[in-house]
Amino acid sequence: MTPLKTLFLFLLFAMPLIGQHRVLLHIDKNGHQESMPLRKNEQLHDAVIRFSASPDNGVLTHFRDSLRHFTASKDLSYEFGNLEKEMMLMWFEPYADGYVREVLWAVGSDIGETKEVNVRAWYPNPRLKNLPNTDPQKNIGYYRNLNDPIDPVTPFLELATDSAWIYPSRSRDSATYGFDPLGTEATWKKGGMNVPVKPYSWHSLDMLSTGDTMKFLEDQLIGFTIENTATSANGVRQEILSMPLPDHPFHSFKFYPRGRLSTIDRGWWMRGDFEWGMYMIVEYTRNPRPKIITRRLLNSATTSARTVNAVIKVESETEPVDVKLHARINDQPWAITPMNRTSGFEHAGTVPGAQPGDSVYYYFTATDTSKRTTTSPTYGYGILKKRKPLLLLYNGKNLPSGIVDPTIYLKNTMKIDFATEPYYDFCDINFFTVPELHT
Predict the structure, then answer these.
(1) CA nearest 127: which of 164, 185, 179?
(2) pLDDT digits (tens, 9 = 90+) for 139-196
(3) Could you tell me which of 44, 86, 118, 10 has the C-alpha nearest to residue 256?
């Protein structure tokens, strides 16, 4: 055997063999991204049925939002205007390098004709995942398109008459919100693809057979826009399956050419009141980095050490992973202790005890065998102080004549009279906040 061949075989067997992993990405009802492994040769729609309660019936029964396209004046009393051509954006954050195989979404329709949408693929602006939770419904702006006399705005830089991003002038937080959310269009298919759609149906798009491969890197945002391009003399109101009341971060945005409430607020809106019901299959070409899932500890009156648990999702339950708990009290230095695997992906650690009035902070780090580390957000809770030994509760009995507020009556009642007054029940408890009633 030649030295070159020997070296090749040595390198071949020395390299870690990383399999490809098909997973279903979706934003769940709480607004959190789910990454669910697929079975061998499982199709996207079958996977959605398996992971969802009832996706087909969901088109009819779930909350839905609409994408409007009105090319002529059409007065719909429950809409905010006419002459529309609206668009949705939804983004995801992959956990490893890979490529997108397929996307799926559901269409419903109560009125109008539903015929066609334009689907485009994007690497959205990474600033999206850092938007704050303070204002979940926020207008973030648009590009000018002065060539359109009806709707002189556009979400696309290539259609803009200049490169300036227009952010609502009345807002003073442009450094946080004033940016183009679309980022860079993927090379999958420049300009997107027009897809025929039917009412009350699921629709999927095979990315691999319709354009170039949409590859992505770990932590590089991936997303899709769907624009209502259907036409009708009476206008079209096309509904897209959605889920209401998500948590932060918000993955769903909507473009209003003529404004959401008026022409003053044209452009993209962050829609923190719902998430679009889009699914996608991605194929990871390397093992995902560790994912940390935990339920944060809440304020407590106990001064003892507390157990904290975290689920560390890696490739398999037997894969080694180095998990550490970082904790401190108030402004003290961080103390780092290893967490123990209790079963499967679950790990446990101990947060040190503290005194009443102290603040306790902690976070987790998880490092896999490839030396990739995931760091969780920092969590915190307070040790409550005992403030009042008694809690007085108004028991609902009729107050003396002329007294309508039990709080006022209590304020003007001497403590020596309490035993003769039947209006309050006394609770001898450890009360750790300031009560509303005055004693």
Answers:
(1) 179
(2) 889 999 888 777 788 999 998 999 999 987 656 677 888 899 999 999 999 999 988 8
(3) 86
Element (H, E) at 238: strand 236-244
φ, ψ (nearest 5 deg) of residue 392: -105, 125
Structural tokens at position 333: 């230095």
The distance from CA 16 to its chain's CA centroid, rounded to whole angstroms, is: 33
Dist CA 433 CA 428 (whole Å): 14
CA dihedral of residues 204, 220, 268, 112 (deg, nearest 10):
0
Cβ–Cβ under 8 Å, residues 289 and 95: yes
What residues form DSSP beta bridges with 203? 105
Return the structure tokens found at 37.
Answer: 């492994």
DSSP 387: -
CA distances from 4 to 8, 15, 17 (A): 6, 17, 21
* Terminal Cα distance for the chain, rounded: 93
The first and second tokens of residue 156, run together, are 């696309």
Instruction: Using DSSP bridges, classify how beta strands 33-37 and 193-196 pair: parallel, antiparallel or unpaired.
Output: unpaired
Helices (H), 108-202: 174-177
DSSP code for 295: -
Both tokens of 341, joined, read 């695997």
Q: Which of 435 and 414 is assigned the larger pLDDT?
A: 414
Q: Rounded distance, CA 424 to CA 363, Å?
A: 45
Give the C-alpha separation, 196 to 322, whole Å: 49
Give dist(CA 152, CA 146) in Å, integer: 5
Peptide bond preceding 246: is omega within 30 degrees of 0, i.e. cis? no
pLDDT at 438 over 60: no
Average pLDDT over residues 27-41: 75
Task: In whole angstroms, give the CA distance from residue 288 to residue 346.
Answer: 17
